[in-house]
Amino acid sequence: AKAAGKDRHELFDPRLRREQAERIRTVERLRVALEADEFTVHYQPIVALRSGASVGFEALVRWTPPGQDPIGPDKFIPAAEDSGLIVGLGEWVLRRACAEAAVWHRRYGTTIAVNVSPRQLAEPYFADRVRRALADSDLPAHALTVEITEGVLVRSGAHAELALTHLAELRADGVRVAIDDFGTGYSSLAYLRDLPIDILKIDKSFMPDDPGDAQQAALVRAVVDLARSLNLTTVAEGVETAHHAELLRTLGCDRGQGWLFGRPGPPTAVSIRLAAETTV
Ligand code: C2E
Ligand code: CA
Ligand code: CA
Ligand code: CA
Asked: Which positions fall inside the EAL domain (predicted)?
């Protein structure tokens, strides 16, 4: 009775109703956009901190409605997630990224990381779809990383079970699994040991905003040490300054991603970057 009362209240709250209407409009536009091919994938380099080489790229979706500036994923992923549209959009991103990355992989050995939403992981045929994308693009499984957030695995229930099954199957094929935004969720540290993961991406909020702050640095060290003790590859996100990179190198973090190394860009920018790196 209490829940019903709350629902009724929300239904008549004008602000919530406006937001709901806005959501529905966004979802309608996204549906059309998917049909009309208005999405693209941008790629951001993931750099080996020791050598400076771009060892991989993260695929980040962009939406450009005709005649408008590109819209960032933070503006539409939540609506796509709520509505279930993320399943189709996510698969489109996966297939596009695998196809584009296959060329870079053949030539330079680079890997590709693709974000996978909880809704996708809970789909009954998710692992098969990934296998199909790999086969169709001729990309070897070991060149693909799927990035997931920890919440989806730590939760219990049928969806988490299914997600774990998919990940185990994909890892058996050689696909890498990364935990995204590590440290922002309700991280249960003991759980980390048992999760089917290979890579830990340290959230950008851990990057010190003050180079002299020993406490901030100690926190980064704690996370890097934790990941290393679990034999996970560490990737720091939000590497914006030379100081960040220096600190991470000192702490033994494996890889970095951020504006210091390069912003997300179109596939042509990736080809140019990779060609330039091999000639120097
Ligand atoms: P994320 O997976 O954590 O991706 C990293 C985000 O950090 C990207 O934002 C990237 O542009 C931004 N970033 C990179 N370097 C820096 C830096 O040095 N400083 C700062 N402040 N930010 C940096 P973007 O492209 O706007 O994507 C936002 C989020 O949208 C992603 O966060 C991811 O959760 C989601 N997303 C993007 N593409 C997809 C997709 O294809 N599928 C799904 N399910 N989610 C996606
Ligand atoms: Ca990510
Ligand atoms: Ca992240
Ligand atoms: Ca994020």
From this structure: 23-278
Q: What are phi and psi of 178, to 5 degrees?
A: -115, 140
Ligand 3 centre from 115 Cα, in Å? 9
Nearest CA to ligand 1 atom 45: 115
**In whole angstroms, how far apart are CA 140 and each of 167, 194, 238?**
16, 26, 28
Token pair 């058996």 is at which residue?
172
Q: 150: Cβ below 6 Å to ligand 1? A: no
Q: pTM surpassing 0.90?
A: yes
Do the interacting molecules here have an ipTM over 0.95?
yes
Residues with Cβ within 8 Å of 121's Cβ and at least 6 positions away in sequence, in order, are 148, 152, 159, 162, 163, 166, 167
Q: What is the pLDDT of residues 51-88, one digit of tens each?
A: 999 999 999 999 999 999 999 999 999 999 989 999 99
